[in-house]
Batch of 3 targets.
Target 1
Amino acid sequence: MVLQRRPLVIAIYDSKWFMRVLDIVKRRGIIFHHYYTPTDVPYGSVVYTDIEAVSRDLSHRGDVLVVYDPEKSCRSLEKALLATMYVTGFKSILVGVDPGESISYVFLGDEILLLYGIGGVGDLIRDVEYVLSCMPFKELRVKIGSGSNSSDVIHAIKAKYRDLHVEVVDEYSTTPSKNRLEEATYLYKKLRGLKPFRYRDIYAAYRIALSKGVEVL
């Protein structure tokens, strides 16, 4: 679930950065509009742009927040994305990891789903790097389920980020089953409508992120 409360409008000239921004915005589950003219911008929008003329043309719109980013920085992009939720950062970002042959993981910002993925350790580290480099937060914790391949994931994370808080969580009762449909329905809303039995390991990763673990020193 994304607590988007303001429309996002994108106006980007640089084609490579445009494609990168689209990928990030879609992964975040944020609804957006393309920029056409100043009068087409919905009331109360956040406009993210690398075009000076767009920033200038919208200067008279007191209801619109323009994030002008000629440097094409992920931190400025995140400023715009967070502004759609009326927040400037997160108190806590929790990463839940369900290890196995394929790794499933979620990133929760103050319990709001930011990112999820299924892949290898490299995919997880790529997203950890993005969060560390681009998102404003006070605390980040990575919580890894105690299943198979957990030691490899822990080693990879600690080898690259020695000072990062990493915890091991007992995986018992983290994967949904058919006799917990009420709980699955609740999580369905939290996880942007991901189907619980198709994405059962993502559901497990979500539970792991919110569970208490034992810190790895």
Note: The chain has a mean pLDDT of 89.
Target 2
Amino acid sequence: MTVKQARYFNLFDNVQYKYVKELINDDDNDIDVEIKDLPCDRACYGKVSFKFKLRCDVCPGSLSIWKTSTFTVELEYNTSSPYAFALTELQEYYGDEEDKEEEEEEEEEEEE
């Protein structure tokens, strides 16, 4: 997922600035995000979970010490909203990439 897409889905709203300060200036940066559909109690609404890791330098200077933290953001949305459409396209796009990678791995195993 690109940083621009993550900002559209408000994934950084509750993340400390020290984790995103290096990312937010470049919309083309990619971050690995695990997207999972969750059960939702409300009619005509959906719920989704985004899980991602970010790194920050906790000791800037000559000796950098990096800390990696995992963040989970759960969002509820109306299934007929533009937000739902964007989420569906995102899941289809990245789901297709994962399927292609799995197929390539299977083909490599068969060749061996």
Note: The longest helix spans residues 82-111.
Target 3
Amino acid sequence: MTEIQKQKPYFYLKSKNEKLDDMIVREVNTTNNDSRYFHIVFTYGKKTNLKSFSLNKAHIENGTHTLIPCPENISHLPSDDMTWFEYQPNRFRYKMMYDVMLENDEIIKSCYPNGITFTCFKSKQELSEYAANLIKKQHGDIKDSQIKAIRLCKLLKPLEHSDDLMPNTEIQVSSNFKVFKEWIVGNAKE
């Protein structure tokens, strides 16, 4: 059985410490009341070699670090490839390829969000012609009301080959984080 997740606990972190400023983080393994542990998902500001870090209550309470929950309409991030998320209409979708699970548990691979539908393609030729506006897509649209869950297609690593129609790349992940920062971060105030 396929595990379908709900929204993950993502936060936007603003900090007076420039190594931990202007980034998206995910809380993990909070084991005691004094410290909270985070995995760095994406850095908008100065790049860091850190992958994770912890903050104690004092860091948060004295204003050195501010954690702002990402908006509720963000169920996943561009880096959340190969994880199924419960689909709810009017939630944010990125300009990347998705696999779609229908209400009857059928999985349709390589779909692209398009308004209130996902458009699926049968071949690279069809995808290329559609992207070049040479054909008007008359078939293959999946309506929001038919969808149970979505997942971003596998993220293609540098120098890796894929037979997917249009594999997601690290460049797309970075681009989607930057282009959609306003939506991902929400109305974060310092």
Note: The chain has a mean pLDDT of 81.
